[in-house]
Amino acid sequence: MKHQQYENWILMDEELGQEQQRNLHGHLKQCSQCQALYQASHQITHLLKTAPEPAPTVGFSTRWLEQIDKVEKRKNRLILFIALGVISLATLIFLSTVGFELRSVVGSFPQMLFELVTLITNWFVFLNQISNIITPLFRVGAKLLSPVWLYVSVFGLSGITAAWTIAFYRSREMQKELG
Amino acid sequence: MCKTESQLIAEAKAGDKEAFSMLVENYQRPVFSVCYRMLGTPTAAEDAAQEAFIRAYQALDRYDPERSFATWILSIASNYSIDQLRKKKVTILSMDSDKHAWLAPPDPGPSPEKVALDKEKNALVQAILADLTETDRAAVILQYWHDYSYEEIAETLDLSSSAVKSRLFRARKLMAEKWQEMQLISAPNVNSAVKRIAHETSTI
């Protein structure tokens, strides 16, 4: 029988039959190499089986509880960090979207401001022109007319204006009632 | 009242850490033992065993109650230790190292002679395991110290039964060769330790 077969029998983890055992022991008496392997194999099995079981120091489970608390705190911090990150990102996206939508309004604001200023300036110019026309008339009128006629003219014009305004509003109300 | 393992697992699944710490208490020794045999130092074993229990607690929802809890937890510890060895290339200490001292003595109040012999045996074991690959080492540990069958080792290490068989055969051959080499080492502490084991087996 080949030498390799005996080596397999020595290192195999299976029970050998009686015939195989007899065969192996016969070979071991003649072969010093297989004899050394056989002894080494047995000695190692003995060493592994008799080696004392290592044990942790007292308080292993208490240390585990402390560890798991730390791990969970770390995990919670990470979740909080991710949540804050997501919220920040969502806020940024929201603001960007709103900003994009408002861009047209914000972009035309200077134009609107310019138009408002122009309008106010035009009104001032218009009122100034009116003032320039009316003031000389008052001056001439004051010289030509006596104070009594001046008061009569002013009150007369005011009365006509008031009558015209009242008539205008009444006619509108009548139109509404008929309509 | 003493709770059963399945009750503790159910409570732990519901988020009760105290219930899981009872499971840690029950399985700390085999888990620590696997990690110690794999990594070779008490400090690394403590860290790995703690991490294995943390991973088990976090993965408890995936635990199949049909499966043995012991097999499941040892599978996590073995695979974590294998990963650690691959990542850090942890070196198993030599015979001369003092770091093979126990973190805790195996029984209360052992004699100084017993402690010395235990240290010596322990150092020899680690020296023999040192030359094996991570997976072969895990297979040897599960077979010799936890009496796992080929099928259980295969399930734990995610291998086929035939792969486990061939790995264990190769590991035994390597260990035997290493042992023969150690018998030739002239260092007095190694030589005497090996001789003592040889004497123990010859007297059985």
Written account of the structure:
The complex is a heterodimer of chains A (179) and B (204). With 179 residues, chain A is mainly α. Chain A folds into 3 domains: 1-53, no CATH class; 66-132; 145-179. Chain A contains 5 helices and no strands. In chain A, helix 1 runs parallel beside helix 3 (32-50) and helix 2 crosses helix 3. The radius of gyration of chain A is 57 Å and the shape is rod-shaped. Chain B has 204 residues and is an all-alpha fold. Chain B has one domain (5-203): RNA polymerase sigma factor, region 2, helix turn helix motif (Rna Polymerase Sigma Factor, Chain: A, Orthogonal Bundle). Chain B is built from 9 helices and no strands. In chain B, helix 1 (5-13) packs across helix 2 (17-39) and helix 5 crosses helix 9. The radius of gyration of chain B is 18 Å and the shape is globular. Chain B starts with a helix and ends with a helix. The chains are: A mainly alpha (179), B mainly alpha (204). Chain A binds chain B through residues 7-8, 11-13, 36-37, 39-58, 60-65, 67-69, 71, and chain B through 17-18, 20-22, 24-25, 28-29, 32-33, 36-37, 42, 45-46, 49-50, 53-54, 57, 102-106, 118, 121-122, 124-125, 128, 140, 143-145, 165, 168-169, 172-173, 175-177, 179-180, 183, 197-198, 200-201, 204.
